[in-house]
């Protein structure tokens, strides 16, 4: 909510009220009338007024949303919805007005602000009140279908997504996994006709803002031509693909040994229900089946937290110490007074970890129901990465109080988490000795199953949507094209025959929820680039996977230089400050996992790889 980018919830409402009561000409405005009608003075007036309104809307809306997520009642839900509606109305109005200045000669800074306003919408409404209302209802209905989705299993038990996901993570029974996988996908076929109409209406809305289709509008949000951005993602994927292929080969072989090669053929894609995750997007839950021998590092961060009697607050203080060691100021006292650290016993709250800035200045907070585990300790470092980013760009214009692109915010948090290494844990007194490098293979395998396994999925979700938006994939081919992309990029296949009436993309929240997905792909590349660059600044001479920038002021200063920029410059400029180049490069991913790649290649020597 604190970021200007409209949240998916707000965007759903935005479609409903985009043009209610406004008579708009649905034809595209030509260049000549724009030049004749609008001047730089008009742009300045618009941006000044919009900045004031935005600042008020964001700050008030953030507080309302904070209250709702920390005190879930019917009343707070109603207040949250009302605030989202007000914010969304304004967002649509801002985008339409900004588009009218497309041909006015303005400064680069003014053009950047106008583009941010135009591109903030994820689901633009047509400039027709009836169609706008229809789009809003469809979006709300799709979200409701997903949120209410359940499956009643063969035993007559009604299972939610959370319960089905637990089966996917924990079960090793082929048939039980198949039932859970298939069961969740019974919720999505009825979404398909609504999604088809939603695409038609959102494309019309995007065209009203001057874009060929919605996909082109989404891709235009990256400081480069839309088609070049798509090519850039493919280039990055080709860099990291050999590592993914090696991981895929090993995982398939081990799954074949466990389940039998009749169920996991060694020359085909992996059945999607065997990878420990409902969407086979990350594979960490099958670590026990694919783990290297003798790779136990000899310690458990969870056990060490208990041994050293860390409280939840101690865990956050420890993470804060990481940032102060880099030269950042301590968190304000209000952070400790106003954050949510543990789950209250007397009320319902949203426990999903998140970082907040409620006043565009120093009222930064986290909201977590902290568990005393090593995973949560790393997550806290990640969330504080968001907080320190938010505070660093507080002096920017409200238009620029955001990350350089939507992948940067997640990447910064993940970059910090990569420094939670054995050496760091020893330095802060959580472990006594640093394991020998031979133990790194297990740690790298765990991380690869989460990070590397995710990368092709992070790419293909929007690859599919972009082709849907531009008409290359037609409704009768939605499901076929989805699985073609799953096999092409992931080497993962549907475990049973799927038909044209199925709508398996709808089983992933971000599709019915209209959340762009390329940001997650970018974050998985950028975090390793940033980590490598900061380690070089810190003078690291060892393996990059063992590097922690803890206690290095030079690395902290370089990091802060990028954070302070916010969205005021292109992401290429921000990237150059940190890495020395304007072009993203996935070779840092390969460097990080180099020891694991050597190990995988040795294991795969006599295996049949590829899919």
From TrEMBL:
InterPro entries: Peptidase_M2
Cross-referenced Pfam families: Peptidase_M2
SUPFAM superfamilies: Metalloproteases ('zincins'), catalytic domain
UniProt keywords, alphabetically: Disulfide bond, Glycoprotein, Signal
CDD domains: M2_ACE (cd06461)
Organism domain of life: Bacteria
Chain ranges passing through the membrane: none
Signal peptide: 1-18
PANTHER family: ANGIOTENSIN-CONVERTING ENZYME
Protein name: M2 family metallopeptidase
Taxonomic source organism: Thalassotalea psychrophila
């Amino acid at each position: 909510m604190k970021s200007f980018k409209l949240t998916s919830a707000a965007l759903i409402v935005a479609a409903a009220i985009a043009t209610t009561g406004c008579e708009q000409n649905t034809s595209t405005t030509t260049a000549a009338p724009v030049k004749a009608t609008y001047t730089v003075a008009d742009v300045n007036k618009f941006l000044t007024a919009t900045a004031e309104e935005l600042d008020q809307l964001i700050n008030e809306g953030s507080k309302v949303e904070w209250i709702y997520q920390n005190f879930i009642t019917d009343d707070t839900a109603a207040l949250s919805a009302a605030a989202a509606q007000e914010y969304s109305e304004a967002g649509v109005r801002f985008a339409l007005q900004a588009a009218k200045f497309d041909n006015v000669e303005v400064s680069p800074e003014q053009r950047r602000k106008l583009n941010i306003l135009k591109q903030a919408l994820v689901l633009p409404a047509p400039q027709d009140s009836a169609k706008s209302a229809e789009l809003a209802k469809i979006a709300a209905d799709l979200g409701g279908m997903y949120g209410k989705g359940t499956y009643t299993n063969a035993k007559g038990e009604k299972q939610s997504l959370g319960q089905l996901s637990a089966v996917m993570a924990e079960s090793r029974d082929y048939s039980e996994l198949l039932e859970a996988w298939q069961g969740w996908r019974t919720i999505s076929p009825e979404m398909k006709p609504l999604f088809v109409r939603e695409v038609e209406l959102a494309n019309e809305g995007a065209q009203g803002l001057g874009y060929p289709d919605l996909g082109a509008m989404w891709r235009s949000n990256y400081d480069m031509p839309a088609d070049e951005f798509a090519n850039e993602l493919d280039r990055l994927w080709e860099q990291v693909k050999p590592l993914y292929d090696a991981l895929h080969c090993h995982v398939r072989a081990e799954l074949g040994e466990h389940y039998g090669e009749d169920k996991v053929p060694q020359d085909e894609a992996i059945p999607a229900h065997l990878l420990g995750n409902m969407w086979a997007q990350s594979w960490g839950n099958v670590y026990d089946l694919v783990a290297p021998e003798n790779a136990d590092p000899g310690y458990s961060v969870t056990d060490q937290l208990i041994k050293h009697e860390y409280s939840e607050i101690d865990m956050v203080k420890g993470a804060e110490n990481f940032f102060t060691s880099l030269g950042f100021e301590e968190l304000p006292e209000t952070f400790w007074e106003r954050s949510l650290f543990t789950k209250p016993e007397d009320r319902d709250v949203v426990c999903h970890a998140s970082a907040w800035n409620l006043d565009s200045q120093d009222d930064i907070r986290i909201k977590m129901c902290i568990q005393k585990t090593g995973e949560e300790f790393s997550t806290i470092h990640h969330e504080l990465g968001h907080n320190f980013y938010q505070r660093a760009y507080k002096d920017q214009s409200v238009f620029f109080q955001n990350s350089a692109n939507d992948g940067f915010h997640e990447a910064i948090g993940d970059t910090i988490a990569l420094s939670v290494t054995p050496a760091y844990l020893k330095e802060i007194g959580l472990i006594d000795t640093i394991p020998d490098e031979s133990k790194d293979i297990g740690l790298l395998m765990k991380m690869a199953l989460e990070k590397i396994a995710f990368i092709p999925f992070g790419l293909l979700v929007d690859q599919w949507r972009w082709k849907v938006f531009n008409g290359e994939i037609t409704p009768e081919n939605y499901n076929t094209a989805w699985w073609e992309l799953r096999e092409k990029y992931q080497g993962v296949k549907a475990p049973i025959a799927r038909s044209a009436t199925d709508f398996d993309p709808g089983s992933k929240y971000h599709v019915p929820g209209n959340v762009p997905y390329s940001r997650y792909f970018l974050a998985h590349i950028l975090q390793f680039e940033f980590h490598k660059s900061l380690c070089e600044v810190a003078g690291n001479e060892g393996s990059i996977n063992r590097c922690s920038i803890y206690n290095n002021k030079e690395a902290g200063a370089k990091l802060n230089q990028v954070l302070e920029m916010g969205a005021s410059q292109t992401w290429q400029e921000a990237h150059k400050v940190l890495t020395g180049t304007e072009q993203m490069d996935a070779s840092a991913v390969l460097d990080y996992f180099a020891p694991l790649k050597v190990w995988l290649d040795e294991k795969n020597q006599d295996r049949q790889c590829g899919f």
